[in-house]
Write a structure and sequence with these properties.
The chain is built from 12 helices and 7 strands. By secondary structure, the chain is α/β, with parallel strands linked by helices. It has a 7-stranded mixed β-sheet, sandwiched between helices. Strand 2, helix 5 and strand 3 form a beta-alpha-beta unit.
């Protein structure tokens, strides 16, 4: 058997190859949210995310599954929701996390892309709407993966309820999602901290963008973006018993780095120094609760219906 260090080294090479090729292809049909540049496109930020999610700066949460949940892997049957071009299931399949994958998206365009990129992997694709899931069945899957999809969901409680029923009783749902304020409408106090932190950076590294997006940007971009993001955490916790969770933070660094990473990518002494400054501020203001946690990683098992809060309001 390979040692854990060797497994991590091999897996990270696989993931780097996959994500470099596919990371910017996933998105909604009308608006490609992932055409933008985000904080995790920077290696130092990815290490920060890894540390928050797994306790190891060199281990992605996807790789961490192989050891933290080793008694479960490989999962026999896995569902990936809102799969986009399919990079999530390809990544997990190549890591050996699952044996057979089902994956759905509402976009024909992305389903065609996912199918064309799946190769000989055991992945089945179908079209479905996260807001109106009708054909998942009950106790079907050993694992379900939500990677940044639930914060796009209008009918959030119904969707999470149906996903919980689609899992086997001892199945696991993995969630890595944005859980910050709806439509990124940060409070006045949060916005002031963002502005002050941005102004402390040298001009070269300051974000030129509004640090609180206009609601109009969402209406004319992707109306589903962060539509109920502030409810994601509570809703998942309503339907699942959480067995592992970590705050990924982001209240400072995420917004300042949005579409503002080119100078940081040069990786010179000043770039590294100021990126570390941003991440230190991210930790400081999150710990003091001056800014909210924007990203959350959690794994849970489905609750029995009669153990769910307000279960009498659920569909039969």
């Amino acid at each position: 058997m390979l040692g854990s260090n060797i497994v991590n080294e091999i897996s990270n090479k696989i993931i780097k190859r996959i994500t470099k090729k596919d990371a910017n292809v996933h998105g909604s049909e009308s608006y490609d949210h992932y055409k933008d540049q985000y904080w995790n496109n920077l290696d130092l930020v990815q290490q920060y995310i890894n540390e928050n999610a797994t306790g190891n700066r060199d281990t992605l949460w996807q790789v961490d599954i192989l050891t933290r949940f080793k008694e479960h892997v490989p999962f026999k049957k896995v569902l990936v929701i809102g799969c986009g071009n399919g990079w999530v299931e390809r990544q997990l399949y190549d890591l050996g996390v699952g044996l057979h994958f089902d994956a759905f998206d509402i976009s024909e365009k992305y389903l065609e892309s996912a199918k064309s990129l799946s190769g000989n992997r055991d992945i089945n694709y179908f079209k479905a709407d996260i807001n109106n899931l009708t054909n998942l069945g009950e106790s079907t899957y050993d694992a379900i993966f939500n990677v940044g999809v639930l914060h796009h969901t209008f009918r959030l409680s119904l969707a999470v309820w149906k996903l919980s029923r689609a899992l086997k009783p001892n199945g696991l749902m993995f969630n890595f999602d944005y859980v910050g304020p709806t439509r990124n409408q940060y409070s006045k106090e949060h916005l002031e901290i963002l502005k002050n932190t941005n102004s402390e950076l040298p001009k070269r590294f300051q974000s030129p963008h509004p640090l609180r997006p206009s609601k109009r940007d969402f209406d004319f971009g992707d109306p589903s973006e962060a539509i109920h993001s502030d409810l994601v955490r509570d809703t998942v916790e309503r339907f699942f018993d959480i067995t592992y969770q970590r705050d990924i933070n982001g209240g400072i660094a995420y917004q300042i780095l949005w579409n503002n990473i080119d100078e940081f990518k040069k990786n010179d002494i000043d770039a590294v120094k100021n990126l570390k400054f941003l991440l230190e501020k991210d930790i400081e203001y999150t710990k003091s609760k001056a800014v909210p946690v924007l990203f959350w990683y959690a794994v849970g098992t489905p609750r029995a219906k009669d153990k769910i809060k307000y279960w009498e309001l659920l569909p039969p």
